[in-house]
Amino acid sequence: MRVKDTLNIGRTKFPMRGKLPVTEAQREQLWEENKVYQLRQKLNEGKPSFVLHDGPPYANGNIHIGHAMNKISKDFIVRYKSMTGYRAPYVPGWDTHGLPIEHQLTKSGYDRKKMSTSEFRDLCRKYALEQVDKQQTDFKRLGVSGEWDHPYLTLDKEFEAAQIRVFGEFAKKGLLYQAKKPVYWSWSSESALAEAEVEYHDVVAKTAFFVEQVKDGKGRLDDNTYLVVWTTTPWTVPASEAVAVNPKFDYSVVKPAGDDRKYVVGTELLGNLAEKLGWDDYEVVDHLAGADMEGMTTQHPYLDRELLVGNADYVTADTGTGLVHTAPGYGDDDYNFGKKYDLPIFAPINDQGVLTKENGADFDGVFYQKADDISLQKLEDNHALLLEEPLKHSYPFDWRTKKPIIFRATDQWFVSIEKMRQDILDALEDVEYHPAWGKVRLRNMIKDRGDWVISRQRVWGVPLPIFYAEDGTPIMEEETINHVADLFAKYGSNVWFDRDAKDLLPEGYTNEHSPHGKFTKETDIMDVWFDSGSSHQGVLAERDYLTYPADMYLEGSDQYRGWFNSSLITSVVCSGHAPYKSIISQGFTLDKKGKKMSKSMGNVIDPNKVVKQMGAEIIRLWVMSADTSADVRVSMGTFQQISEAYRKLRNTFRFLLANTADFTPAENTVSYEKLEAVDQYMLVKLNHFLKQMRDDFDQYDFLDAYKLLINFVNNDLSAFYMNVAKDVLYIEPADSHVRRSMQTVFYQILLTLVKLLTPILPHTTEEVWGYMDEPEEFVQLTEIPDVQTFDNESDLLDKWRDFMEVRSHVLKSLEEARNAKMIGKSLEAQADLYLNDQQAALLDSLNADAQLLLGVSALHVHPLDEAPDAADQFNDGVAVKVSPAPGETCARCRMVKEDVGSDSAYPTLCARCAKIVRDNFPETVDEGLEK
């Protein structure tokens, strides 16, 4: 028999390398075949519910790493709740209507205008469903568990019908109106946009300082006086109807030397303007208040139109002249100004951003961006242009086409936010926010939100269920809307485009505004934010196993103005409360330089690439390690680093499995009271770790949980307990109390870690579970352990904390001895400890083998006052002296002992090992041991 045959070297077939790209997919197939998600739901029947409602990603293109972060974060929470006493169903969803899908078909060569609306919509539907299938495959491959066989899609008939009924609630409460007012207009999409569909980029605009001659100065200004007006959009000057001044400002009437004209400018801006305009010498001939200018008129600089001067508080003195060009058809402030003074709402521009003949012959057919130069030239030709100047400022863009947008007055349908603003703000108070600043952000979004334009001039979406009578009166009655909802539930929304208006109305329907019984129907569709914003009715309220309101919505921080926002509005209208009890918002994924990821920049990371190279578990562990409450930088190098942390976890599982391979819990478990001291300590530490982890999971603080996990594995296990364990598990008799005591705690650590990490690393923990002798077929069908507490654990932890401080001193001295080439491994060392009475008593009170815990071959404890000068001195009074241990190295335990060979039958073994071998392998007394 060889010496190594007398050792209990742990063995397991659990592989060191996971081959994750291959084995994960096989495991996911097994879960699907065995309906593990459905089994988990059945297990949880009757438990309290926790419903995380999925914000639907858009069904277009491959998923990116931001999608992965979002879905995996949700999966952590749903899996954790499912394993801790909750019924936590998860229904994934998709947003399937909207312009990007129409664009994709156009790019593929389909011409919407050469086919019927229904034919084009059928193509859109087919494309959307293909995208859903593609993305669903990708999400499932990330290990995300859910009701994949019955997701929700906004194009489903039932969903569309529910959305129509939500619209009906708005109509019933008088919150809908039609108006011609400026909206965000995307000429590149040929549609109005909602606030949530707009993003801002810096642009350089051409600004103009130009003059308008006073026509009626109300006795204060003569007709040789000119108002100096400022605009950042010279192309809108043909639509100018007025000049806005601030009623609280003081205005100066200025006569520059050598100029026979007088000019009116804001007094506060005069100094800066004079320098810009080259007025080196000028005289201020008069002052007047902005309030006194109200009602004056001026002459348009190059059109035959008289313009009004009016008061507006939004005019500022931080730039410009204090007098602002006003075109009521081209801006929110301008529109409100125009309504106040009963001015025409004039926006002579078409859907594609091309100016029309109403601007004048020179502008007819000109794209608006090119019209700036024409307008500037006409100002110049009419001696009205004082200065053209570039200005860098933030400007709105269409978030899909990445093209700038315009403000344009068109006939649209709106939701009146003002009528219900306070109700929405009140509903926010009942919501819990992670991070806490989310409340302020959402509150400000609602507080400052204008009315919601919900009509879109496209075809791929849910139609606005509005009919028009013969005299143009809109019809939005409960009877008609519910009838349309019933039709959509039966036939889908294509029926709106397939049938005439009369065939969409209830049989026998009459209306006083249509004496001849003739009706027409609206052709616009609803904003897609109304689609997804109705999901609380189309999904939560529709499916009886879900709850409304949901316990949680979790999405990116951009959803404070998107889905969080639209869902809140629709829910308050439908039910008087928020659709969620809590909100978690996450940051965006950025590249390693901190830039936003985009396909055009080529800095996007495809999760499938990471999965194929390293496995989904690496992405999942990265999500756990990331501070998702803020923007997250990520690169392929990030995943390489995370794979090292994963390897450490995997090797920890392997070590624990190998060293509990001969441990049967039912037979070999040692009760807490009978555990060895170090094992008691580690069992208490394990439960404190478990409590902290569960607390972090309960607070959705996965980053802190990751730090705790890595610290526990690296410091408590690898650097201490598993290191100490080798001398017990390998060396002591297989069935000895001291070994079974340690295996008891090893198994508890293994069982706890494998269950605790199942929400995070389900592929790996299921693999580990296959090597454990537990009754459940899948670890996902178990519960995360409850925290145990033990008598006197506080005192025990205090004692061991003090000991670990002493141990750290010894480890430092051993390291210095190694550096000085005095020893190689720590088992070659003898440690002499010099302690005060209190420290010595601490060591005794541990009731543990201190030499084993310190990892040396010999240990001697002395009074502190005997410490030699050569000993290492530490701040707490401990002194340590390291020297080579006397004796020979035992061939079995590798310690250096003076009693090696004391048993003549075993000349290469120390007395301890000789006794173990003699007692457990008696045949070796005569046969001897081979090396």
Question: Any chance you could write out the topology, listing elements then pairs?
Answer:
Blueprint: H1 20-33, H2 36-43, E1 52-53, H3 65-82, E2 93-94, H4 99-107, H5 117-141, E3 152-153, H6 157-172, E4 176-186, E5 191-193, E6 198-216, E7 225-231, E8 242-245, E9 250-256, E10 262-266, H7 270-277, E11 282-289, H8 290-293, E12 297-299, E13 306-311, E14 323-326, H9 332-340, H10 368-381, E15 385-398, E16 406-415, H11 421-428, E17 432-434, H12 438-448, E18 452-453, E19 455-456, E20 467-468, E21 474-475, H13 478-491, H14 494-498, E22 520-521, E23 525-526, H15 528-533, H16 535-540, E24 552-556, H17 563-575, E25 582-586, E26 589-590, H18 607-613, H19 616-625, E27 632-633, H20 636-658, H21 665-668, H22 677-698, H23 702-729, H24 737-756, H25 762-769, H26 793-819, E28 829-835, H27 837-845, H28 850-854, E29 858-863, E30 872-873, E31 879-884, E32 888-889, E33 896-897, H29 911-920, H30 924-927
Parallel strand pairs: 1-24, 2-3, 7-10, 8-13, 17-25, 24-25, 26-27, 28-29
Antiparallel strand pairs: 4-5, 4-16, 6-7, 6-12, 6-15, 8-14, 9-10, 9-11, 12-13, 16-18, 19-23, 20-21, 20-22, 28-31, 30-31, 32-33
How would you portray this structure in words?
Strands 6, 7, 8, 9, 10, 11, 12, 13, 14 and 15 form a 10-stranded mixed sheet that branches. A 4-stranded parallel sheet has the order 1-24-25-17, with helices on one face. A 4-stranded antiparallel sheet has the order 5-4-16-18, with no helix packed on it. The chain is built from 30 helices and 33 strands. Helix 19 packs across helix 20 (636-658). The relative contact order is 0.11. The model has no long low-confidence stretch (mean pLDDT 94). The radius of gyration is 38 Å and the shape is elongated. By secondary structure, it is α/β, with parallel strands linked by helices.
